[in-house]
Amino acid sequence: QHYFIQSNLRMISSRHIILVWSLLTSTLSIAGNSVVLLASLKYDAIKIDLMSKVLIQNLAVADLGYSLLVVIPTVVLSSSPGLTITGVPCQVTGLLQFPFGMVNILCICCLNISKLYSLKFPLRARARSSRSVWSVAALIWVLSVGASLLIGRRGFSYYPNIYRCLTNGNLKRTSEMVILNTTTLLLPQLIILFIGSYILYFLNRNSTGVRVQGVTVVLIVSAAFVVSWLPLLISNFLNHGNPTFRLDFFRVGVFCVFISTTCNPYLYMLTSRSFRQFVCRALPCKLLMRAHCIRNKPPKISVEGGTQEGRLQEEVVTVYHNLHVPSAAELL
After folding, report:
1. Which of 69, 81, 45 has its CA nearest to residue 277?
2. How far, in Å, CA of 58 to CA of 309, rounded?
3. 302 φ, ψ to 5°?
4. Alpha-helical segments (H) within the chain
5. CA atoms of 172 and 183, how far apart (whole Å)
6. What pLDDT, in 10s, does the model give residues 63-81?
7. Residue 165: in which H helix or E strand, if any?
């Protein structure tokens, strides 16, 4: 009886932790990604190249879809212990969660590849048309839907410990799941780590004369993606063939993915000056965000590219300081 009481208390405490965590991440994700879409689509407030801007927009759509179809149902199910979903609702919610996660992964990979291409071939990168950019975005969604159909063909079951519908082979030793985890989780993270390291190496060797928009944004977002998805990758590989595997570790990996759908808008605000100024002007409050606004200072040239006004003011200041003002003796 004492063990039964302890196990119930442990389940209640973990359920409340999951409820609070899911509610917090879903709220921040929906608010932040909605601002990103509004700022980039309507006001063009994210000053970055076209490829990166389109990928960031698709990444925001994927994060919104993941929050609405995965995180919000987790909030509802964890708040009602007796509530479960089976049958067609479980199959639908389980199948719809995978495309948004795959789009998140592929967009981060394409962001790194695009930045590396811009570094190596800047003239070709500038010549990319909007049609080719949107074709890449469409290909990402097609591949994500196809991979999701392949993953979900085994069917879905509801797992009450994590309040999610997952594939029936997710917690079993199958070579198919090992291959899927390798191609959808391990390989993209290795690509991101390799390209990100090479970008840092390239910038270190060519520190002068290299101006590429959004390098800092891409590197920081990629680092956050790797950190948030790494626990799920480790838990999936430890799960296969390990009879002593604890479901708690898998639960931690699943809920760490929520960080990836939440943190991106706030990382944009920290690394993108134009987006930060848009948020400062748009918010009615004068608390935290207003402190970061720079209103009366001329814009400076940053890693993500300076404005024409900022470059002009910098040239004027340089010319002013280089002017030689003759003294009275020289005039006489």
Report:
1. 45
2. 30
3. -115, -175
4. 2-41, 50-66, 72-79, 88-120, 122-126, 130-151, 175-181, 187-205, 215-239, 247-271, 273-282, 308-322, 328-331
5. 18
6. 999 888 888 888 887 777 7
7. strand 164-167
